[in-house]
Specification:
By secondary structure, the protein is α/β, with parallel strands linked by helices. Helix content is 53%, strand content 12%. The chain has two domains: 167 residues, no CATH class; 297 residues, Rossmann fold. Helix 12 runs parallel beside helix 15. The relative contact order is 0.10.
């Protein structure tokens, strides 16, 4: 019976490791999401309990009265798991794979308790003491799991306290200061990384915000205050008034390998959403004053050291093809005599998920380094400057056209790598060669990690916009260290 319990305990450790690495870290970046602070606190405590359970089963027997303390630990873990389930459902949307994993973990834990029960009852018949024991290879394997759980217990605990400081830090919440109060703003893609935070900021400032979302129930947890959630644009009456439409919809370019199927999803998600917004504007009796449609500096493709302004043509890369198709669809708003601003965004730095959280993951464990030869240019922008550029477009009523929204000082990858290492106080000694990137990530890795894009934001600055975040080291330090 005990051998079966050990086998199930190893299975529990493997499933827990998958859940932590794949869901919590790689997919959702929980250690950098302010809303995950309480969840990480629970994870830290529960992992501490697991450490005791793993080490104890590997090397000791809790005999006599001590066995009841051990049983209490096992029961407390169940209580913490139930608390975790409640907090998760109230703070984020769990993907189906995570729900399945949690169900399997719960069922497997029940089996572990069932197989452990006879052994625990036998421990109770001895005199009260801790007795050293060994179960051969099982003990050493379970000890390795205990060490891994210890590492993540510390990581989650530290992340909890860091996120508490982020919540207290008001530096990244300056008012947008739209000229006209109480504007009606429709955001497509309002549950994404940029859209959800922009929407909440606009709600807090008293604007009438509507979000286009595929799931009203799931999206509701993202927001507090008055908001309208729409799952079908046909539900908007033709007589309604919309002042501004902000189009941010699109599947994540780093959301999966660029298979033919995923390329189609990347393109169709952007084109279909934009086309639906055009159809909405066609039937509205009063047209919106402005449409702001997102794009990306990926439009330019791989340009080496060449400085790319908005007149620069792209290359034959998929990134260019994707952005060109998106922008071409957005041009149809102009045919309706609607002012249009297309914002070609650099890589957007901020917390609460997003690309930065994914980029720094290997650096946090001291295994980050330059990509390729490190000479490729990297165009970036802070999330606050993205918000401010959107507000600038709304306020400046004579502004239209395409604009690069990137910090005035693009940096080479080797400079970015050093800045991340300095902000996190980690070494950056493990480079990733070009061949390894192409092998591991395919075309996606080549275009995202190795393309050199040196975008110029002179055009938007000449219109009067000023970037608040211009130096890479200072920006990363402020962003990662509240």
């Amino acid at each position: 019976m005990l051998d079966a319990a050990f086998s199930l305990l190893i299975l529990q450790g493997l499933m827990g490791a998958f859940d932590t690495l794949y869901h919590h870290e790689l997919k959702l970046n929980l250690p950098w999401r302010k809303s995950a602070s309480k969840e990480l606190f629970i994870h830290a405590i529960r992992n501490f309990f697991y450490i005791i359970v793993f080490f104890s089963l590997a090397w000791t027997e809790w005999r006599g009265a001590y066995v009841w303390l051990f049983i209490a630990l096992l029961i407390a873990e169940v209580g913490l798991t139930l608390w975790d389930f409640v907090v998760e459902d109230n703070t984020r949307i769990l993907p189906s794979t995570e729900r399945i994993t949690h169900t399997l973990l719960a069922l497997n834990y029940g089996l572990i308790l069932a197989f452990l029960a006879p052994t625990l009852l036998s421990w109770g018949s001895y005199s009260t003491e801790f007795s050293f024991t060994s179960h051969g290879g099982y003990s050493w394997i379970i000890t390795l799991f205990a060490i891994g759980v210890l590492v993540w217990s510390i990581r989650d605990g530290l992340a909890h306290f860091r996120l508490q400081k982020f919540a207290e830090n008001k530096e990244f919440s300056a008012a947008l200061n739209l000229n006209e109060p109480g504007q009606c703003i429709l955001i497509s893609g309002g549950s994404g990384y940029i859209g959800s935070q922009l929407a909440q900021r606009l709600i807090d400032e008293g604007h009438d915000v509507s979000i286009v979302t595929r799931s009203i129930h799931k999206s509701a947890i993202h927001f507090s205050g008055k908001i309208r959630l729409i799952d079908d644009l046909k539900n908007i009456n033709a007589t309604e008034n919309i002042d501004v439409i902000i189009n941010l919809t699109g599947a994540s370019i780093a959301g999966g390998f660029w298979t033919d199927k995923y390329k189609l999803e990347l393109k169709s998600s952007r084109i279909k959403a934009t086309r639906n917004l055009v159809s909405l504007c066609e039937r509205l009796e009063t047209k919106p004053k402005l449409v702001i449609s997102a794009s990306a500096v990926g439009y330019y493709g791989n340009q080496g050291d060449h400085i790319c302004d908005e007149t620069q043509d792209g290359d034959d890369s998929f990134s260019h093809e994707l952005c060109l198709a998106w922008e071409t669809e957005a041009e149809k708003f102009e045919a309706l005599d609607i002012r249009l601003c297309i914002l070609r965004l650099g890589v957007v730095f901020g917390i609460n998920g997003g690309p930065l959280a994914k980029m720094i993951f290997p650096f946090e464990f001291g295994i980050g380094g330059i990509l390729g030869d490190g000479k490729q240019w990297f165009s970036w922008v802070h999330l606050e400057d993205v918000f401010r550029s959107i507000a600038f477009c709304i306020n400046k009523t004579d502004l239209s056209g395409r604009f690069n929204i990137t910090a005035p000082d693009p940096v080479r990858n080797k400079v970015l790598t050093a800045a991340i290492g300095k902000a996190l106080k980690r070494p950056t000694l493990l480079p990733m060669p070009v061949k390894a990137i192409k092998t591991l990530f395919g075309k996606m890795g080549e275009e995202i990690f190795l393309f050199s894009i040196r975008a110029s934001s002179d055009k938007i600055q000449l219109e009067g916009f000023e970037f608040n975040y211009t130096e890479i080291e200072e920006t990363l330090d402020k962003t990662l260290n509240p």
